[in-house]
Amino acid sequence: LLSDGAVVMTQVYNGRIDDAVHKDHKPFVSVWDGQVYDFEWWGIPMGAKNGDAAAKFIASASTAQSYADLTKYIAYAPPRKDAIPLIAKDRLNDLPTAPANFKHALQINASFWADNADQINKRFQVWLTQ
């Protein structure tokens, strides 16, 4: 919708905006004031066939250096504060958890969305067709 000019602003995953700006040369600007964030987790099902290998992968993928390296490919934020100093300074401004960008961040309210997502999505679909 943003690329097509149907809207002048939107909420979107920052990695998509970063790609549009850096790869497609779109004139988009991220506004970090009031950004919404949430957490994601790694997990291994009990009794997993390759549980030990999965645990080793998670340990390796969760290091500060691994998170810092990921930012070279997509502007997703490292969840570890100790990764921040390992990120190139010119890349840091593109990340939602950069200290300057995270000042007014809001954690998503999962209970609200669990209770209201279906109703809000229906209203959004109607709005899209107008």
Gyration radius, to the nearest Å? 18 Å
What is the N-to-C succession of helices and strands? HEHHHEH
Contiguous uncertain segments of 5+ residues = none
- Average pLDDT over all residues: 93
Largest beta-sheet characterization: 2 strands, parallel
SS summary, helix count: 5
Find the count of extended strands (DSSP E, 2+ residues): 2
Helix content: 25-40%
How many structural domains in the coordinates? 1
Distance from N terminus to C terminus (CA atoms, Å) equals 14 Å
Verbal overview:
- With 130 residues, this protein is mainly α.
- It has one domain.
- 39% of the residues lie in helices and 3% in strands.
- It is built from 5 helices and 2 strands.
- The protein has a two-stranded parallel sheet.
- The radius of gyration is 18 Å and the shape is globular.
- The mean pLDDT is 93.
